[in-house]
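Postdoc handover notes: sequence design on the structure in folder B. Input tokens:
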């Protein structure tokens, strides 16, 4: 065997012809097995249905997301700093090693292009050596975490392949580093061949393990839909959502194969962590399992309950109706995922498939859809009740002369507490001298129908809403409900162009210096999912709270805020399994010791109102919307005092 050295100590290599032939054969075998294993996956992804409305532009945003999430590993490090950094070191080490690995195999053919005699080679071998040390330590740490610490959300199953891959990466690094200390002779031969074999065994293992994300995730991150929790448009009357394999799109298939099984989504899921069946990681792996078992184009239903009994015991057990309808659409899963998996298009897609085909049967759901269709509001009340409230509050009707249309929403128009919030917000608007009027008639934005997958009801509400705004010549809307803001601003786009809309926190924050400054009382602010994660509005409500008292943070805040349990239409369905999501969050808010809980969503407010009765203790904190926090600092004029009674 020829003599050679690794790394910075590398010398010109001399391999016999037999050795070179062996290197070529091993490389070919490794590449062929890799391609044979990756091809069926590529075929599945490419063979899936095209994503309606997918556009590569704006390319700038995609490039930025790619740089931040893939190259900088920003998201991974931000969400889980220590394991995230360890993962980032492994990733960056891989990049640094690409050249070294290529050179390593080339030396086996006497074609090595990096020599330690020149500055470039010496520098690069040393540079890669530093990375090799970091990667070895990081991979050992990650191995320890996965196999010894074993966080719950990684799942019960211990993945042998993950252990083997981690071992191979460790061997690759150690054999490289060994080249710096081993001189010439047989030890160098052993190091070279061990390194080579580890590299060539590693490659074909990738497609069969979660390490497939090494190949796919850069693509997945680059190609993701680009808007948080984007519900794709249906493709005509024959498209009912995700009913069977034939409905799975290329993006969904790509994402399913990219999942690295880290469990971040499950760790942050309010349904999973309160003992429900739903486990977002298993949903994604369920889609992957389905694709492996039935393939794209299959007519076999995705949800277990919709399948024939003889194929119910397949490997796709996580895809159940119960799981799909336990999702609050809080978006924590999608927000956390480091490889660009978008859970909500899948979960809402499955709901669509069940609702639009009539397979979902739920008493509460039916009642809700009927209320939306007949009364035009989710609470099922007569529109006359809203008229009476508007008259009592002496709200002007929007006639085009006012600056804002104040959108009441179902909660503000019909729910007693929601009405208090609207009344107080109207006081704030009056105090600030902003002119507003309310719609003469309002229908629900369709948010619960949209999230529950009823496209027919949602579509008719969206169209009616758009027409009403157009007729009334509304230019600017302000609303107290983040669900209304999101639905009008984003979901209605499928049907037309809605007027500009903002949340009342954004409106009030603009006038922060004019809001009454109140002293003393501690207020813990709860970030609503549909305001924070969905619309990236975190600081505006805090500015309003800070004017009304001393702002206190809950343990989970900003983008890590924990759901109240109401979203995704669940406030109207009831929660039967496990602990109540609202109780868990209310306990967390109470534990801060704050005198008041500040909310910025009438649904959160309603959920906590009930929860505090159960978990608030003897003296539960006061529960107020940010508009109420501001309004209580306003001088009460006589006419207003009468309205408030
Ligand atoms: S959206 Fe929220 S409730 Fe639904 S699966 Fe994701 S984390 Fe769980
Ligand atoms: S879907 Fe994303 S967050 Fe969830 S386990 Fe897979 S990679 Fe991790």
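Designed sequence:
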């Amino acid at each position: 065997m020829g003599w050679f050295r690794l790394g910075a100590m590398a010398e010109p290599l001399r391999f016999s012809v037999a050795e070179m032939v062996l290197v070529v054969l091993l490389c070919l075998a490794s590449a062929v097995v890799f391609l044979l294993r990756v091809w069926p996956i590529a075929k599945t992804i490419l063979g899936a249905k095209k994503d309606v409305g997918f556009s590569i532009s704006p390319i700038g945003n995609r490039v930025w997301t790619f740089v931040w999430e893939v190259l900088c590993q920003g998201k991974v490090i931000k969400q889980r700093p220590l394991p995230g950094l360890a993962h980032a070191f492994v990733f960056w080490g891989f990049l640094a090693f690409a050249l070294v690995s290529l050179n390593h195999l080339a030396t086996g053919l006497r074609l090595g292009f990096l020599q330690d005699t020149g500055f470039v080679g010496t520098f690069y071998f040393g540079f890669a050596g530093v990375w090799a040390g970091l990667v070895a330590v990081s991979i050992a740490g990650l191995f320890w975490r996965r196999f010894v610490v074993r966080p719950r959300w990684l799942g019960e199953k211990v993945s042998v392949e993950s252990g083997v891959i981690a071992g191979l990466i460790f061997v690759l690094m150690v054999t490289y580093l060994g080249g710096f200390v081993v001189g010439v002779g047989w030890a160098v031969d052993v190091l070279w061949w061990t390194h080579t074999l580890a590299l060539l065994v590693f490659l074909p293992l990738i497609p069969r393990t979660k390490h497939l994300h090494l190949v796919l995730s850069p693509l997945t991150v680059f190609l993701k839909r680009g808007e948080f929790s984007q519900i794709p448009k249906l493709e005509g009357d024959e498209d009912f959502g995700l009913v069977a394999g034939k409905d799975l799109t290329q993006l969904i298939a790509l994402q399913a194969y990219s999942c690295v099984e880290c469990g971040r989504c499950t760790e942050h899921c309010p349904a999973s962590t309160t003992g429900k069946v739903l486990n977002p990681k298993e949903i994604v792996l369920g889609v992957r399992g389905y694709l492996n078992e039935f393939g794209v184009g299959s007519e076999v239903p995705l949800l277990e309950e919709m399948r024939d009994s003889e194929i119910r015991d397949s490997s796709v057990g996580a895809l159940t109706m119960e799981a799909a309808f336990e999702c609050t659409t809080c978006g924590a899963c999608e927000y956390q995922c480091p490889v660009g998996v978008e859970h909500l298009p899948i979960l809402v897609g499955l709901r669509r498939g069940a609702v639009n085909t009539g397979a979902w049967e739920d008493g509460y759901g039916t009642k809700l859809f009927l209320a939306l269709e007949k009364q035009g509001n989710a609470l099922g009340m007569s529109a006359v009740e809203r008229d009476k409230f508007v008259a009592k509050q002496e709200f002007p009707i929007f006639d085009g002369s006012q600056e804002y249309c104040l959108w009441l929403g179902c909660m503000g128009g019909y729910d007693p507490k929601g009405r208090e919030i609207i009344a107080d917000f109207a006081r704030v608007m009056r105090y600030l001298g902003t002119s507003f009027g309310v719609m003469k008639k309002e229908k629900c934005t369709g948010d619960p129908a949209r999230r529950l997958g009823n496209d027919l009801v949602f579509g008719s509400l969206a169209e009616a809403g758009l027409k009403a705004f157009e007729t009334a010549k509304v230019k600017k809307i302000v609303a107290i409900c983040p669900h209304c803001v999101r639905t009008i601003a984003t979901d209605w786009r499928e049907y037309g162009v809605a007027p500009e809309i903002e949340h009342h926190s954004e409106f009030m924050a603009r006038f922060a210096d004019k809001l009454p400054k109140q002293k003393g009382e501690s207020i813990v602010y709860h970030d609503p999912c549909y305001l924070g994660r969905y619309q990236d509005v975190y600081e505006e409500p805090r500015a309003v709270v800070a004017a009304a008292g001393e702002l206190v943070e809950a343990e989970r805040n900003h983008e890590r805020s924990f759901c109240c349990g109401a979203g995704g239409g669940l406030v109207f369905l009831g929660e039967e399994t496990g602990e109540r999501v609202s109780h868990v969050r209310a306990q967390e808010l109470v534990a801060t010791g704050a005198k008041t809980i500040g909310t910025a969503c009438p649904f959160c407010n309603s959920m906590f109102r009930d929860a505090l009765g159960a978990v608030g203790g003897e003296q539960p904190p006061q529960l107020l919307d940010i508009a109420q926090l501001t309004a209580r600092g306003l001088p009460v004029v006589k006419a207003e005092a009468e309205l408030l009674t």
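Context for whoever picks this up: Confidence is low (pLDDT under 50) at residues 1-12. Don't rerun without checking with the PI first.
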